[in-house]
Please model this.
Amino acid sequence: MELLSKNLILLSDGPTLSIEGPQVLYSFELFGMTQQLTASVVVQWFVIAVLGVLFFALGRNLKLKPETKRQALAEMIVGMFDGMVKESMGPKYFRYGPYIGALFMYSLALSYTSFLGFFPPTADISVIGGWGILTFMLVQVNRFKTGGLKRGLSSYMKPTPLTVISEISNPVSQSFRHYGNILAGVVIGGLVFWALEVFIKIPLLIPVPLALYFDLFLGGLQAFVFASLTMVYVAMAEIEPKAVKKA
Model:
């Protein structure tokens, strides 16, 4: 009992761990409802600005034949995402290359903001949920574009009416998979750092490999998985044209 009391005193005197999601920077009234400007929004605009400057620098003054390492790097990046789209969706979906590339790079950059001390926006369900809704819209657009209105509507009933539930569950599971893994990394990493400081009293720089796994590897993996699932869902929504009957 005495040991338990000492431990409780230690916990009460030591640092506390609190994970409450993105910080609310500003609240205001709009249309009779309270709106909040969170750190996730600010960090996203920061990342958009950085990526915009980076891509502008890589894409300016391009030559028909690469003459600089900058252009070679730009072509390598574009070729990588075009190859992903061609392999996962087929050559006729080559126009999705810029979107898939932007989605992957954006997700990766947002997750890596944790290295700057920010709460990563990819651990905010409102951010990833928006991407899931966008994927859902792209799926429906491809369905009606390839099958027309009549066949597009009838596809929701094949093989059973439960197909509608599957259409809704795909973007939901896709979003929660990305959000849950990044948030789990934030929570576990925070718990490890907290425990090391409270119980072992060692510098926080020691568990660097753990931080590299959760922040570096996991962020890249989830960006790849989300982009891959987007390509798969959109390609699977394609409705093949009717076979022409021979006389």
